Amino acid sequence: MPALLHIHDLRFAHGGRIILADLDLHVAREETLVVVGASGSGKTTLLSIVGGVLSPREGRVCVLGEDLAQLSARARDRFRADHIGFVFQLFNLIPYLSMQDNILLACRFSAARRKRIAAAGSTPLAEARRLAARLDLPANLLARPAMTLSVGQQQRVAAARALIGRPGLIIADEPTSALDADRQTRFLDLLLSECDAAGATLLFVSHDRRLSAHFDRVVDLSALNQAAKEVAS
Ligand SMILES: Nc1ncnc2c1ncn2[C@@H]1O[C@H](COP(=O)(O)OP(=O)(O)OP(=O)(O)O)[C@@H](O)[C@H]1O
Ligand SMILES: [Mg+2]
């Protein structure tokens, strides 16, 4: 079976400085993988490329058999909305929208997500509420604007928004916020169990090696990334 995510010979520079070089990575369907790396090592850059937000000039990135570079910008946006759930490092919630509407936003932009929910006999609203409950978000907060939520609550809203409508790939950028270890572990367990229930593949990045035990596989970004070796030598 082809890998769900397949990265080959990826090279990416920010403003002329090479951040990622000759990077290969394959992630199997339904696998959960954490990529560990220090601050500034290129984790967010890597996820932005996998999510089709940044386009590399060299290398191939295929998600669900689709070569992202072969898609027009518009088709790439559509593909992301339909098939990739992105939990951003800073969550990227719309501050004045309610918790519920933030979760539903992912469905508004994707007919494919709405179709998958309908095929499972549910509605976007019911699914948003189910996910909120699963992620320990109390129902009485559903109507509250995102900006009034705690950081931990915002993180879980971001996860619900990524998961709704069952995209095949969830990519999650570990927040640098001051979540304590217990809350971080609880969040991870919820995210992993929802990925499992949805049959989703999870690509998670973190600076924290201690999270490794939760995942099927852990890789060091510095081992994958030849740019790190060029800088080190
Ligand atoms: N838009 C940009 N323009 C120029 N350089 C950038 C840009 N974004 C990131 N960089 C640089 O690329 C490198 C990798 O950044 P990236 O955000 O991917 O790191 P990270 O591993 O996610 O770090 P953190 O753990 O702090 O989130 C850093 O040196 C950063 O300064
Ligand atoms: Mg980052």
Describe the structure.
This protein has one domain (about 5-230): P-loop containing nucleotide triphosphate hydrolases (Rossmann fold, 3-Layer(aba) Sandwich). It is about 40% helix and about 25% strand. The protein has helices spanning about 45-50, 75-85, 100-110, 110-120, 125-135, 150-165, 180-200, 220-225, 225-230, and strands spanning about 5-15, 15-25, 30-35, 60-65, 65, 85, 170-175, 200-205, 215-220. A hairpin with a 2-residue loop joins strand 1 and strand 2 (about 15-25). The strands form two sheets. Strands 6-7-8-3-9 form a five-stranded parallel sheet, with helices on both faces. It has a four-stranded antiparallel sheet with strand order 2-1-4-5. The chain is globular. It binds adenosine-5'-triphosphate and magnesium ion (MG). Magnesium ion binds next to helix 1. Adenosine-5'-triphosphate binds near residues 15, 39, 40 and 176.
State the helicity in percent bands: 25-40%
Evaluate the radius of gyration: 17 Å
Strand ordering within the main sheet: 6-7-8-3-9
CATH class descriptor name = Alpha Beta
N- to C-terminal distance: 37 Å
- By CATH, the topology is Rossmann fold
Enumerate the spans where pLDDT stays under 50 for 5 or more consecutive residues: none
How much strand?
15-25%
**CATH homologous superfamily designation:** P-loop containing nucleotide triphosphate hydrolases
Number of DSSP-assigned strands: 9
Arithmetic mean pLDDT: 92
Query: What is the count of distinct domains?
Result: 1
| Ligand identities | adenosine-5'-triphosphate, magnesium ion
N-to-C series of helices and strands: EEEHEEHEHHHHEHEEHH
Strand pairing plus helix content: what structural class? Answer: alpha/beta
The geometry reads as globular
Please give the CATH architecture: 3-Layer(aba) Sandwich
Total helical elements: 9
**Biggest sheet character:** 5 strands, parallel
